[in-house]
Amino acid sequence: MTAPSQPSTPAPAPAEDRAPAAVPRRHAARLEWVDAARGYSVAAVVVAHVVLWHMTDPGVPIAGVGASFWDRVYGLMGSVRMPVLLAVSGLVMARRVRAGFVEGGLLLRSVRNYYLYVVWLVVYALFYAVVVEPTLPHRVDGVGDVVRQLVVPETTLWYVYALAVYIAVLGALHRVPAWVVLTALSVLSIVMHVTTTSDQVWSKVPELAVYFALGVYGADLLRRLADRASVLVVGLAGVLAAGVTLCGRFTAGNEVAEAVLFLVRGAAFLVLAVALVAVGVRWSPVRRLGVALGRRTLPIYVLHPLWIALVLLAAAGFAHDALGDVLGSPVGALLYPLVLAAAVIGLCLATEALVRRVHLRVPLFEMPRAWVAQLDRPTQARKGRTRA
How far apart are alpha carbons 170 and 106 in whole angstroms? Predict the structure, then answer.
């Protein structure tokens, strides 16, 4: 992994489908938990990248309690942020993917995601042509790097690339039994986990495909879980997730067992996240914030690495001493990632608002309408024949 902003959609990330302009109130709660799950997942992505890129080696000492706390939280986030984001993306696309390429209009949806990937890959290259600091993470340097990454993603944009791939592949396999697809993708996930390293960003595309598929084929189960979620269900899901996590003590050193545990842990935390969000959105502030973020996932996702890079530059320069004072205190070290992540998300949304104001939403966040119409022509023609 699903583009953002109609207030009534359950959707906005690059790949996902759009809901009708008006949504009956009886369906609103279902749409809200989906939006909120996506919103909080993308917020977790920002927090994780702040911790990974900004706290692991900021050049200043970090208070021990803060370093220990965020090290543990970052480890847990690996089982939550992308599995949940991908599964919810799959859930939103489930009906279309299972209908097949023509019926589901999947050519448009796959190409639209790849289009957004290419656009932002070029934006990253332009950004790093100006911001030349070589130590910044996930750089895109020059034309050669852009050409290579058209096929092999090496930045956080892999999620946008992956959505294009997942939609195309699962759409092509829509007649294959779900259990066959899920089994094959589970095996692929285990193989990739064992044979690749975390710095091989491209490997996340095959490794995490199973979670998008879980959203597609388990859409009804996830919706039922959300409908029946309660504090008790959240508690039971939490116990399950904790139990699976504790199994890591027995798998240490066995690469295959660790890979299987990674897969199962992601599924367990997916259950916990869906139940927790479904209960949480019953409280208005949690619902409003989650939905607001969930309908702006694309600008947050694609822009946050650039804003974090600028913060890293500032921290290495004029703000170095001030950052040392903040991270050196226990309270500062504990709160800093949350405060910085909130600021980065605000800057992403402000940038998207500016893009909208200067009428650059197309091409930066949407494909040109003429291209959309051309790609969607087979689906519309099919619908016309069906009506006739």
Answer: 10
